[in-house]
Design brief:
It contains eleven helices and ten strands. The protein is α+β, with helices and mostly antiparallel strands and 266 residues long. α3 packs across α4 and α7 runs parallel beside α8. The protein starts with a helix and ends in an 8-residue tail after the last strand.
Length: 266
C-alpha cells in the first residue's frame, strides 16, 4: 500500500506546476514539438524542454520519431481527473459551508464536470436565472426542487403551453407557497398532465436542486446542516456540465416514487 501512495505522491509533484498542467492540457488538444509549445506558452525553449522531460519521466507524455510529444494513455486519463481538483480548489470557500448532500459517490467522482460552471449569487439572481432557463427551453425542462417560489410557476407553465415537456421531482418535504394549488388549477395543470406535457414524481429526501433545459443547466448544493441553499448556485451552458446535471436528474427520476399531492403542505 505504501508503494501506491509513493507513486501517487510523485504524480502529484509532477502536476504541481502551472506550466506542466498547461502542457498536458495543450497536448490533450493536439500533439506538439517543444519549440511550438514554448511559443504558445510564451516561455523559453529550455524551460519547456525541462518540463517535457519531467512529464516524460513520469510516464505522462511520450515523444515520437518526428519529435512530437503526445500524451500517453496514462496522461490522458490523468487529465480527466484534474478538473475535479480545479472545481474544488476554485470553490474552496463555498464548500466550507456546503456539501454534496445525498449525491451518490459515482456523481461526486465526476464532480470535475462542473468545473466550467459559474457561480450565481443572491436569491433574486438565482430566480432570474431559472426564469431564463425556462424561457430558453425549446424541447424540455427538468427540475428537482426542494422549494417552489410562487412567481416561478407562471413562466414555467407558459413554456409548457408552448409544447415544452416538463418533468419535475419534488422532495416530500418541499416548501410550497400558499395559493400554489389554486394557481396551478387556474393555469390548467390538469390539462397539461393529460396531454403528457407534464410528468411529476417525488423523492423522500432531496436537498440538491437541479434545473435544466436541453442546452443549459444549474445545480445548487445544500449547506452543512442538509438544507438546500437557494442563495447560490452553479450555472453553465457547457456540454459536460449539462450532461452531469441531466444524468443526476435521470438517476433521481429513476429512483423516485409516484407523485402524491396529499404529501405536500402549504
Amino acid at each position: 500500500m505504501g508503494t501506491n501512495y509513493e507513486n501517487a505522491s510523485s504524480d502529484f509533484l509532477e502536476l504541481a506546476s502551472e506550466q506542466r498542467l498547461n502542457i498536458i492540457f495543450k497536448l490533450l488538444e493536439k500533439k506538439s514539438k517543444i519549440s511550438s509549445m514554448a511559443k504558445e506558452l510564451d516561455a523559453t525553449v529550455q524551460e519547456v524542454h525541462r518540463n517535457f522531460e519531467r512529464l516524460a519521466d513520469a510516464g505522462l507524455v511520450i515523444k515520437d520519431k518526428d519529435g512530437y510529444y503526445d500524451l500517453t494513455t496514462y496522461g490522458k486519463t490523468i487529465c480527466t481527473q484534474v478538473p475535479s481538483l480545479l472545481f474544488l480548489s476554485k470553490n474552496r470557500k463555498y464548500f466550507e459551508n456546503h456539501d454534496f448532500g445525498d449525491i451518490p459517490m459515482k456523481f461526486i467522482q465526476r464532480i470535475g464536470a462542473l468545473a466550467g460552471g459559474q457561480p450565481v449569487k443572491g436569491f433574486v439572481k438565482v430566480l432570474e436565472q431559472w426564469k431564463s432557463i425556462y424561457k430558453n427551453a425549446d424541447e424540455f425542462i427538468c427540475q428537482l426542487f426542494t422549494e417552489v417560489p410562487l412567481d416561478l410557476i407562471e413562466p414555467l407553465l407558459a413554456r409548457v403551453r408552448k409544447g415544452v415537456k416538463l418533468d419535475y421531482i419534488f422532495s416530500e418535504s418541499v416548501i410550497v407557497p400558499k395559493g400554489r394549488k389554486e394557481l396551478l388549477d387556474k393555469l390548467g395543470i390538469k390539462q397539461l398532465i393529460d396531454k403528457g406535457l407534464v410528468e411529476r414524481k417525488m423523492r423522500k429526501n432531496a436537498n440538491v436542486v437541479v434545473v435544466l433545459n436541453e442546452k443549459e443547466a444549474c445545480v445548487l448544493f445544500p449547506t452543512l446542516d442538509g438544507v438546500a441553499d437557494m442563495r447560490e448556485m452553479f450555472y453553465s451552458k457547457d456540454s459536460i456540465f449539462h450532461e452531469w446535471c441531466l444524468d443526476y436528474f435521470r438517476y433521481c427520476w429513476y429512483n423516485a416514487s409516484p407523485f402524491q399531492e396529499s404529501k405536500i403542505r402549504e
